[in-house]
C-alpha cells in the first residue's frame, strides 16, 4: 500500500515525499508542475503529471495503485495574489479538494492529511494562536483553506473519512541540497534573490511593540513539517485518534530583524536592511502554539534559525 501525495513535486510536497520514503512507506505523486519541479521527485517514485481537478485521472490513479491514504499538499498558495485571482484560487483549492475527495470516496480511500494554513486565522486578537483561536481569514487563499477543512469535516460525518489538517505559517529551510523554495512571494527566496542581484533586502517597519521593533512570526523548518505529515499518516493508518486540526508552531517565533541578521551571517554577505514603512494590517506578533502537535505528531523544532538559513542558502546556491 502507498500514500498519494498531491503536489508532491513542490517545495513542501517533495520534502513530504522523501520523509515517507525514508520511513519505508511507498508513495505516489501527482503534480501539474504549475509551481513544482519534476526534478524534485526521485526517479523510481511513480509520478503523474496532472491536475487534481481531473476526476478521470484521479480515478485511474486509484485503480492503478494500491492507495491507503492521501496527503493533500496541492493548491494555489499565494495569499496576496489570491485577492486578485479569487476564482482561480477557489477552483484550485476548493473545487480541487472536492474532486479529490469524491475520487477517494469512489475508490474507498478513507484517510487524508490536509495541508492547511495559519491563514485561516486572519489577524487574530491574541499573540499566541491555538487551534481554538477564532477563524477569520482575510484572503481568498485563507478562506479556501478553511473551506477545505470544512469539506473534510463534512465528509467525515457523511462517509467516515478519517482526516486531520495541519496549519502552519512560514515554512523555510531545506532538508536536501537539491530541494529548495522557488516561490516568488516567500521571504527567504526574496532575500536571497536580492542579495544575489546586489540589492539590499527590505524590512517593512521597525517601530512595532516587539523587542527589536520588527514583526515577529513563526518560521519552521520544512523537514520538521514533513515529519509531522508522516506522523499524522501513521496515526490514521493505525486507527489512532487525531484532532481535526493541529498548529505546527514554534511557540515563540522570530523577528524579521533576527531573520535579516541570520541571513547576513548564513550567506556570508554582510548588509544592513533598508527600513521601509509598515504595511497596512501587519500585526506586531503572530506565533502559534504547537503543543497539540507535539503530543500527537512528534512535532518539535529540530532546527535553529541559523540552521534554517544555512540549509536554505546552500540549496539555493547549489541550484
What order do the helices and strands come in, and which of them pair?
Blueprint: E1 2-6, H1 11-22, E2 26-31, E3 47-49, H2 55-64, E4 67-72, H3 79-82, H4 86-107, E5 111-115, E6 128-129, H5 140-159, E7 162-167, E8 170-172, H6 187-196, E9 202-204, E10 216-217, E11 219-221, H7 222-237, E12 245-247, E13 254-255, H8 256-267, E14 274-276, E15 285-288, H9 291-296, H10 305-317
Parallel strand pairs: 1-2, 1-4, 2-3, 4-5, 5-7, 6-15, 7-12, 8-11, 9-14, 10-15
Antiparallel strand pairs: 10-13
Your description of this structure?
The protein has about 325 residues and is an alpha/beta fold. The protein has 2 domains: about 1-170 and about 220-245, 3-Layer(aba) Sandwich (Rossmann fold), CATH 3.40.50.720; about 170-220 and about 250-285 and about 305-315, UDP-galactose 4-epimerase, domain 1 (Alpha-Beta Complex), CATH 3.90.25.10. It has 10 helices and 15 strands. The strands form 4 sheets. It has a 7-stranded parallel beta sheet, sandwiched between helices. A 4-stranded mixed beta sheet has the order 6-15-10-13. Strands 8-11 form a two-stranded parallel ribbon. β1 (about 1-5), α1 (about 10-20) and β2 (about 25-30) form a beta-alpha-beta unit. α2 runs parallel beside α4 and α8 packs across α10 (about 305-315). The longest helix is centred in the N-terminal third of the chain and has 22 residues, at about 85-105. The model has no long low-confidence stretch (mean pLDDT about 95).
Largest sheet: 7 strands, parallel
Q: Would you list the SSEs in sequence order as H and E?
A: EHEEHEHHEEHEEHEEEHEEHEEHH
Topology-level CATH name of the largest domain: Rossmann fold
CATH C-level name of the largest domain: Alpha Beta
- The geometry reads as globular
Q: What percentage of the residues does DSSP assign to strands (E)?
A: 15-25%
Strand order of the largest sheet: 3-2-1-4-5-7-12
The structural domain count equals: 2
Amino acid at each position: 500500500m502507498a500514500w498519494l501525495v498531491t503536489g508532491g513535486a513542490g517545495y513542501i510536497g517533495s520534502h513530504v515525499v522523501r520523509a515517507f520514503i525514508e520511513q519505508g512507506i511507498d508513495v505516489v505523486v501527482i503534480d501539474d508542475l504549475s509551481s513544482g519541479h519534476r526534478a524534485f521527485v526521485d526517479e523510481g517514485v511513480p509520478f503523474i503529471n496532472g491536475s487534481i481537478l481531473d476526476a478521470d485521472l484521479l480515478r485511474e490513479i486509484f485503480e492503478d495503485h494500491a492507495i491507503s491514504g492521501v496527503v493533500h499538499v496541492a493548491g494555489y498558495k499565494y495569499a496576496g495574489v489570491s485577492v486578485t485571482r479569487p476564482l482561480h484560487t477557489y477552483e484550485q483549492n476548493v473545487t480541487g479538494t472536492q474532486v479529490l475527495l469524491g475520487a477517494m470516496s469512489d475508490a474507498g480511500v478513507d484517510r487524508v492529511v490536509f495541508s492547511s494554513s495559519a491563514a485561516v486565522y486572519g489577524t487574530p486578537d491574541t499573540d499566541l494562536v491555538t487551534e481554538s483561536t477564532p477563524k477569520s481569514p482575510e484572503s481568498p487563499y485563507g478562506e479556501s483553506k478553511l473551506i477545505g477543512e470544512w469539506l473534510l469535516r463534512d465528509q467525515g460525518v457523511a462517509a467516515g473519512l478519517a482526516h486531520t489538517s495541519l496549519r502552519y505559517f512560514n515554512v523555510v529551510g531545506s532538508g536536501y541540497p537539491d530541494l529548495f523554495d522557488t516561490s516568488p512571494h516567500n521571504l527567504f527566496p526574496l532575500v536571497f534573490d536580492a542579495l544575489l542581484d546586489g540589492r539590499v533586502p527590505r524590512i517593512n517597519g521597525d517601530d512595532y511593540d516587539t523587542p527589536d521593533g520588527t514583526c515577529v512570526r513563526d518560521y519552521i523548518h520544512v523537514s520538521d513539517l514533513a515529519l509531522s505529515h508522516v506522523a499524522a499518516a501513521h496515526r490514521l493508518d493505525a486507527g489512532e485518534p487525531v484532532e481535526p486540526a493541529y498548529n505546527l508552531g514554534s511557540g515563540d517565533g522570530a523577528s524579521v530583524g533576527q531573520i535579516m541578521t541570520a541571513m547576513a551571517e548564513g550567506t556570508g554577505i554582510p548588509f544592513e536592511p533598508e527600513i521601509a514603512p509598515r504595511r497596512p494590517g501587519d500585526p506586531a506578533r503572530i506565533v502559534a502554539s504547537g503543543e497539540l502537535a507535539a503530543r500527537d505528531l512528534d512535532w518539535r523544532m529540530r532546527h535553529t534559525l541559523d540552521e534554517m538559513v544555512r540549509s536554505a542558502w546552500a540549496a539555493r546556491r547549489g541550484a
